[in-house]
Design brief:
Elements (H helix, E strand, L loop, with lengths): L1 H45 L1 H6 L7 E2 L18 E6 L4 E17 L2 E16 L7 E16 L2 E14 L29 E13 L3 E14 L11 E10 L7 E12 L6 E14 L2 E13 L9 E12 L1
Antiparallel strand pairs: 1-3, 2-3, 2-13, 3-4, 4-5, 5-6, 6-7, 7-8, 8-9, 9-10, 10-11, 11-12, 12-13
Length: about 325
């Protein structure tokens, strides 16, 4: 009895020590994120008025409307306002996102712009009567953009988190795509932990009808479940091409866009997303896209990251 009591005390001590250790790790991670964000804002906001005062021709401006780095049309992770029907999966995807220019200044003759972006990516099953929610992903980003002639570049900090929908238990065809830990009775009650922060660096070259871009993505902070592997595979590579045949007075004109992505955590397999259709609108800040989309790769839902998908989709998107 005395031995069992001693063992129980030791177990409690170990559990307490583990809990304290986890809290310390979480505190260190939080402090690391705060320091990175503080450095980011210091460089972007603190130094911008100094640079702006050196150029009297173009004053410091707040809330600029013009974009220096235009959105990537075929990138599924782009912040946008769009609706998509995935015909093969009987799913509806909605992006409710917006991008706002915070400030713009010039360093000599180089325009520099800081923006803030937010996006909610929701997936619903097309099932009556109430369209159950499969998952929801949230994105917050702070892009820093520059433009020099036909060349533009973007350095961006991004946070993304993914959450299972409340109605997930009612969706039969997606349960087996998530790995849960625990007994079978708890199989549908333990969603995957998906939260991470990125630094992204992209460059693009624009001509009158063609745009080429490429970039690197570094996930410097990845949150995983306690029983998942913590092996760091943070790097991704992305590239793409866009073409449109817009004439001076065209209200409707064709376009085509293709995006390639390769992620280290998915063994550098190539993911492809291709769109073709029509753009409606003369103003690049206010226009609509209607497109057919073909996707081949891994799911863009964080909860289903390891699921391979091949889809044909109908897309309606608004560029602003």
């Amino acid at each position: 009895m005395r031995l069992a009591k001693i063992n129980m005390q030791q177990t409690r001590h170990e559990l307490t020590f583990s809990k304290v250790s986890i809290e310390k790790v979480n505190l260190m991670t939080t402090q690391k994120n705060i320091l990175i964000l503080a450095l980011f804002f210091t460089l972007n906001l603190g130094l911008s008025p100094v640079f702006a005062q050196k150029d009297g021709n173009t004053p410091f401006s707040l809330f600029p409307r013009q974009r220096l780095f235009t959105p990537r049309l075929a990138d599924p992770s782009e912040v946008q306002l769009s609706a998509k029907v995935r015909t093969g999966r009987r799913e509806f995807n909605g992006n409710i996102g917006y991008s706002v220019g915070l400030l713009q200044f010039q360093l000599k003759k180089l325009p520099i712009q800081l923006r803030i972006e937010g996006n909610t990516f929701i997936v619903l099953k097309i099932e009556s009567p109430d369209f159950p929610v499969q998952s929801t992903d949230y994105t917050l980003a702070f892009p820093l953009d520059i433009q020099l002639g036909a060349f533009s570049s973007r350095l961006m900090w991004t946070h993304i988190s993914s959450h299972l929908g409340d109605d997930f238990n009612r969706i039969d065809d997606v349960g087996s795509t998530i790995v849960f830990y625990g007994d079978e009775s708890a199989y549908f009650s333990k969603p995957k932990k998906f939260s991470r922060e990125f630094l992204q660096l992209f460059g693009a070259v624009n001509t009158r009808k063609l745009r080429l871009y490429s970039g690197l993505i570094w996930a410097y902070h990845i949150v995983v479940s306690r029983l998942e592997t913590a092996e760091s595979k943070p790097w991704s590579f992305q590239a793409g091409m866009e073409w449109h045949n817009r004439r001076e007075r065209s209200l409707i004109y064709p376009f085509m866009a293709i995006d390639f992505k390769s992620r280290q955590e998915l063994n550098w397999n190539i993911e492809l997303n291709w769109q073709t259709g029509f753009i409606i609108g003369k103003n690049r800040l206010r226009r609509m896209r209607l497109a057919l989309e073909i996707f081949s790769g891994y799911s863009n839902q964080g909860q289903f990251l390891s699921r391979k998908e091949r889809d044909i989709n109908m897309v309606m998107a608004f560029d602003y």
